[in-house]
Amino acid sequence: MSTTDVLTVEGLRISFGAVQAVRGIDFTVGEGEILALVGESGSGKSVTARAVLGLLPGKASVSGSARLGDQELVGADEEGLRQVRGRQVAMVFQEPATALNPVHTVGWQIAAVLRAHQPLSKAQALKEAVRLLDLVGIPDPGTRVGYYPHQLSGGQKQRVVIALALANSPRLIIADEPTTALDVTVQAEILDLLRDLRDRLGTAILLITHNMGVVADLADRVAVMHQGTLVEQAPVEDLFARPTRAYTRELLAAVPRLGHRAPAAVPAAELALELNQVVVRYKDFVAVDGVDLRVGQGEVVGLVGESGSGKSTLGKVAAGLLRPSSGTATVLGGDPATARRHIGFVFQDPGGSLNPRMSIEDCVGEPLRVHKVARGADYRARVAALLESVRLPAAYAGRRPRELSGGQRQRVGIARALALGPSLLIADEPTSALDVSVQATVLELLTGLQRELGFACLFISHDLAVVDSLAHRVSVLHRGRVVEEGPHHEVLRTPAADYTRRLVAAVPVPDPVEQRVRREGQVAPVG
Amino acid sequence: MTATLETPEPVEVAVPDRPRTFLRGKGLVGLVLVGLVIFAGLLGPLLVSWDPYEQIPGANLLGPTAGHPLGTDDLNRDILARLLTGIRVDVLIAFTAVPIGALVGCAVGALATVNNVLDVAVQRLFDVLLAFPQLILAIGLAAVIGPGTTSVVIVIVCVEIPVFGRLLRAAVLRVREAQFVTASEVIGAGKAHVLRHHVLPNSLEPILVQLALSLSVAVFIEGAMSVLGIGVSPPHPSIGSVLTTSLRYLDLNPLFAIGPLAVTAVLVLGFQLIAQAANAARGA
């Protein structure tokens, strides 16, 4: 790494009214260096990046200093910032679908960015756009330059966004959660691309992420943020091997890892859920294509797959919310719709699945009221017991969902799912909306409750490490079909199917040393 | 997963205080304006000694005097007394017709979301009602049922039904897709339970805003119908009828028109401000 710094941030403070989002942080990004800024939601990492580009709303007050080379960016006027944006610092956003304008071709959009900063003719700009698309690995760039964003896949869109960022050869790229919205195999491609661009062009990258696997894969140095302060800053190998601060240690310990749990199996006596040759069609589109799935009593089955693989659709079929076009779904020997009393469902979005106008007590106790199981003092006592079982204070009963944090809301969701003592719990991505440390506690809670109460569980997730941490058996879903099925330690550690192998290989390991070995061991990138 | 992470979540979450919308700013101004007018209407008989129907001998089209602060009209009646009584009539019309229209509209709108065929039928009916400009509808209805207070109420109800129907339908369709509705269905809750506990309570916010807005529209419709001669029939006073009379004698006594105009303006402005404040309170 070069010793010259592209970006120097000193004593940066950002506050929104009385709320201090960033409380005086210092860091530098050297030439050709990838610095990862990690932290949980609300730690101030995205705000920091936006402050550097002057993209914060007017009510934010920023003090301290952020220098790009010799140029001060904090307090710079709009014209000065305009010269910097795109030309010297470019940004890659989280959601490629919304970062691109849907009514213009990608070539037009790249050309517009080029012509904003360089005296190029339209034809020259378009030619340069083709070169850039080629640079970011879009096949047949000469044709694709005339494509609209909707004609490209999610991964290709993110490549276009990166091409946009590269258009004026910036010295620094700020990538704000560049792979969070992408599937794991696509994520691996984008990470490869970013690393390759850094190696070829020497562009410095400020990477903002919450994913420790991504950090281990890509970063040279890591800065850990927590509640607006920089907790620790170190080269990536040192940070993962010898974290010096307690918070960093906790954060790393909370990251679920593949293959760190002993094999576990339950003797399946009776079946809680049985799906037989289930097919689900939406008009001409086949979402689920002949899936067989069995969940025994007291067994946790993980259902993994990428977006669009049909895993959530299967969850709905199992809960009786959706009728399969053909095939049968059986819960406890009967129809799912009639067995609702014995099914609990935990949703992905803990905020959206709770009625904002109901108290926590009413949210948790709704199943009791619907099935007229308990009322009066008995009802309140049972709700209190449920809240206690998910380790929420009984005093929360009178609160509204908005008065709780994300993790606490998900506990409420779990308490509601367990209210009637279900035999089958269906959890659809229950932790993917949560921060990593919160995710760890929710998973721990679910595992503990499952051991204690012995319900069967269909655990749907895209995160292989999460599934590996609690499932007995795993089914891998790809384009509506089960490609592999078996005990968790076999499927996720020694996968037999080609697709599963690619999936497992694409998951970045939260260990930089191991990740480098894996990367160099791969002959061809995943794709 | 380690034991050190037992309590990583903050126990307290910062909850934004509900803005006290009606205790300051637009909301307060709106409430004060509407309150002043209604107060004046209720206390009218105590404030003015004249009878609104009494024809005072020798007091034809007087200008403002100490005895008649707004003067007298062509039939020798005290304008202030008629205006204050007119406020009562207007407020009564608005507060009867708008809630009836809202109730019927909401009921029809909610019912329409249950069945697709019904939905299409109701939507086209609403289209027909909305296609008529309000005053054309008023003239048409008055031609059938005759002018008078009742027809003013009926016109306002007819104008408001599609407005509230559309609004509730849209809100219900939006809320019905919310995940907490699915969550309730998974539990095994019936349609009625979902509608009563989840969908309707979360759909009512825009209705409350529209209520305030519609009250101002009602005051406006009453005035317009009176001006067209199909409103509250003489000799009964209303804000609109006082205004209509005043327009004929604008050259003799310009101050005649100021009273009803000011009251109309204050009422409409007040209701609009309340609606804006209510809308801001729901974060829209």
Number of helices of chain B: 10
Q: What best-fitting shape of chain B do the alpha-carbon axes yield?
A: elongated
Largest sheet of chain B: none
Q: What is the strand tally of chain B? A: 0
The overall pLDDT average of chain A reads 87
Largest sheet of chain A: 6 strands, mixed
Q: State the total count of DSSP E strands of chain A.
A: 19
> Unreliable segments of chain B (pLDDT under 50, ≥5 consecutive)?
1-14
Q: How far apart are the termini of chain A?
A: 30 Å
Query: What structural class should be given to the helix and strand makeup of chain A?
Result: alpha/beta
**Number of helical stretches of at least 4 residues of chain A:** 20
Protein name (chain A): Peptide/nickel transport system ATP-binding protein
Membrane topology (chain A): Peripheral membrane protein
GO biological process, one term (chain A): peptide transport
InterPro entries (chain A): AAA+_ATPase, ABC_Ni/Peptide_Import, ABC_transporter-like_ATP-bd, ABC_transporter-like_CS, Oligopep_ABC_C, P-loop_NTPase
